[in-house]
Amino acid sequence: MTAYDVTATNRVGLAAALRALGQPVRDAIVSVAVGGSLFDDRFGLSPPRLLTAMPEFPSDVLDLDWCHGDLLVQITATDPTIAKRASRRSLPGLRPRWRLDGFHPRNRGPGVRNLFGFREGAGNPEASDAQLMDDLIWVKPGDGEPAWCVGGTYQVVRLIRLAMSSWDVESTTEQEKVFGRRKDTGAPLGQDTETADPDYAADPDGRTIALNAHIRRANPRTPDALAHQILRRGWSYRRRDDAAGEHLGQIFVCYQRDVEKGFATIQQRLAGEALERYLLPYGGGYYFIPPVGGEYPGQAMFTM
């Protein structure tokens, strides 16, 4: 994942940069997103209506060297050398702002897991439900967005350092209380399967799932909360160049039709959760992924 600042000074230069980014990478998937800073007075583009700079939330310690960017490019591949090589291409009109290589740990149990050992994506809305994705993820006509945004989605990226030394000394029972899920199966505490709904109505005092457990704060399963769901697709990372030693963390990535209604609302509910003491968010940003199509990503922006 690489964020870029655009150094091109006109639309022709920006178009060339986008064409270069849009070149296929064999055996890899490339996605290109735009940040709010691209829509200043340099290029005269119509911005996504709801795209802003990511704010600093109460538990954040943001490092501006690891935040924002005019463009964000994510390259994913089964072979990590393919993604790394492609992400380090020299591109016209672009200057790297920050870059981070992600991976999925292979030694933390079955399924895709984070470095805390818990399964990623538990509780996600069902991505195969086209109607649900239309409601939650994809910008639609009538949303008040520029025409080029219809069919796209808002992307939030959060770079989060994990307090592994504090986490690893906790018992599995205590870790499960923090998340509100079983570590081995991903099932909500008191349930048998990962997809089972936690029964908060029968547990008003938090005896089974604590009131400050991550899953209870993230999605309290109220009718209102269902409208604020996001689609999460996260990665782990390992940075070895940190002065304090090995730097382990999470690249949190989510998608939604409206950042304030999705991620920001959930973030406000998470304030004071039990998991907070093990996390240090320090970077990332808000972006918009244009719909697929055209000669290069974002082509429709230049017809407005």
Overall number of strands: 10
- Helix/strand-derived category reads alpha+beta
State mean pLDDT (0 to 100 scale): 92
Shape: globular
pLDDT under 50 segments (min length 5)? 294-304
Q: What integer value in Å does the Rg equal?
A: 20 Å
- What is the overall number of helices? 8
Overall helicity? 10-25%
How are helices and strands ordered from N to C? Answer: EHEEHEEHEHHHHEEEHE
Largest sheet: 10 strands, antiparallel
Query: How many angstroms separate the termini?
Result: 28 Å
Strand content: 15-25%
Description:
It is globular, with a radius of gyration of 20 Å. Strands 1, 2, 3, 4, 5, 6, 7, 8, 9 and 10 form a ten-stranded antiparallel sheet that branches. It has helices at residues 11-21, 80-87, 130-136, 164-168, 172-179, 214-218, 223-226, 260-270, and strands spanning 2-6, 29-35, 71-76, 94-99, 102-103, 153-162, 231-232, 235-239, 247-256, 279-289. The chain has eight helices and ten strands. By secondary structure, it is α+β, with helices and mostly antiparallel strands.
Summarize this, please?
It is built from 8 helices and 10 strands. The protein is an alpha+beta fold.
Salient structural properties:
304 residues; alpha+beta; 10-stranded antiparallel beta sheet; 8 helices; 19% helix; globular; disordered C terminus
Give a topology summary.
Blueprint: E1 2-6, H1 11-21, E2 29-35, E3 71-76, H2 80-87, E4 94-99, E5 102-103, H3 130-136, E6 153-162, H4 164-168, H5 172-179, H6 214-218, H7 223-226, E7 231-232, E8 235-239, E9 247-256, H8 260-270, E10 279-289
Antiparallel strand pairs: 1-3, 1-4, 2-3, 2-10, 5-8, 6-9, 6-10, 7-9, 8-9
